[in-house]
Write a structure and sequence with these properties.
It is a single chain. The chain is of the alpha+beta class. The chain is built from 6 helices and 5 strands, in the order αααββββαβαα. Strands 1-2-3 form a 3-stranded antiparallel β-sheet, with no helix packed on it. Strand 1 and strand 2 form a beta hairpin.
C-alpha cells in the first residue's frame, strides 16, 4: 500500500450509526456518533490522526530526497560557506556551492552535482576567464550568449559555472587557462582528468 495512505478501518456492525448519521450533515452526524457510538468516534479520530502523520512524514521524505540538506559553516574570513554533506569534492571534503549568481548546476541549485540523465557531466566549477569563454565558443560550447529559454544568463569573465568535465579537459589540453574551484568541483571530475591536473588548476587548493 502506498505510504501515507491509510486503510479504511474495519468497523463491522459498529459502523451502522456512522452510516446512518451521514445523511444528517457533518455536525448532526458527529452528535449522533458521539451519543450512540462514542467508541467508533474515538477510533475514527485516532485513524485520521495517524493517517495525517503518515502523510506528513512521506511528504517530508520526498522533499528531503529531492533537496538534500545543506550545511553552512563560517571560515576564518567570516564568509559563510554552504556545503552539501555526503557529496565529496576533489579534495575529499564536503562539496561547496559553486555559484548562485548566476545560478548554476545541472539541478540549478548552485552545486556541480549530477545524475545519469546529465550526459555532459557538469562536474567542474570553473572560474571563467575571457580566454576560456572564447575557447569554449570556438569548440561549439557558447557560454557567453544568453539563452533565456534554458534559464541561461550568459557568462562574463570572473563568473563561476559548473561546466562539462570533458569540455574543461579540452581547454586544458589546448593550453587555455581554465582555473577551477576545487572545493566546489565534484569528486567524479577525477574520472575525466588526473587529480594532479585538477589541483594544479585550482584557485582554492593549498
Amino acid at each position: 500500500m502506498h505510504a501515507g495512505r491509510c486503510p479504511g478501518p474495519a468497523l463491522g456492525h459498529a459502523a451502522r450509526p456512522l452510516r446512518a448519521a451521514v445523511g444528517f450533515g457533518l455536525l448532526p452526524a458527529l452528535a449522533v456518533i458521539v451519543s450512540y457510538a462514542p467508541g467508533v468516534f474515538v477510533f475514527v479520530a485516532r485513524e485520521v490522526a495517524t493517517c495525517w502523520r503518515l502523510g506528513a512524514s512521506s511528504a517530508d521524505s520526498i522533499r528531503e530526497a529531492k533537496h538534500p540538506a545543506m550545511m553552512a559553516s563560517v571560515g576564518p574570513d567570516e564568509a559563510v560557506t554552504v556545503v552539501l554533506p555526503g557529496v565529496e569534492n576533489v579534495l575529499g571534503e564536503a562539496l561547496e556551492r559553486c555559484s548562485v549568481d548566476p545560478l548554476t548546476g545541472w539541478f540549478r541549485d548552485g552545486y556541480c552535482r549530477t545524475d545519469e540523465s546529465d550526459r555532459g557531466r557538469h562536474l567542474v566549477c570553473v572560474q571563467t576567464t575571457q580566454d576560456f569563454l572564447q575557447h569554449q565558443r570556438s569548440i561549439g560550447n557558447d557560454l557567453s550568449t544568453p539563452a533565456p529559454m534554458y534559464g541561461f544568463p550568459g557568462l562574463s569573465p570572473g563568473d563561476s559555472w559548473c561546466v562539462c568535465a570533458s569540455r574543461w579537459a579540452e581547454a586544458v589540453i589546448a593550453g587555455i587557462a581554465a582555473p577551477i574551484r576545487a572545493k566546489a568541483t565534484h569528486a567524479k571530475a577525477r574520472d575525466f582528468a588526473p587529480e594532479a591536473t585538477l589541483l594544479r588548476s585550482a584557485v582554492d587548493a593549498a
